[in-house]
# Entry
Amino acid sequence: MAGVYVCARAAVHARSARSPRATTAEPSLSVVRLQRPTGQAERDLVEASGWLAWPPRLPEQPIFYPVLNEWYATKIAREWNVPHAGVGYVMEFDVDAAYLSRALPCSRWAVAA
# Structure
């Protein structure tokens, strides 16, 4: 069925667009919650990993691009994944804020002490 869904299991938090938000803990100050729009194939690979790892990048999609908010991730899933794959998902995941500060210096990753 065509639509956009927000997925979750364990490390990847989720909800269906047709049901209330799943009860997941809000991120702590030591993590940054990111979202990633995906299609069915990528979602299935994340599920196969036990919801713990993203699959290797495809040659035609070499960049892993999470986004900072659910609204934008849903927009991408709706406008790209649904027309191309018939369904789109928004995967939420937490990343250690200290790691992001080292790997991607950016004021948006700053964490209050």
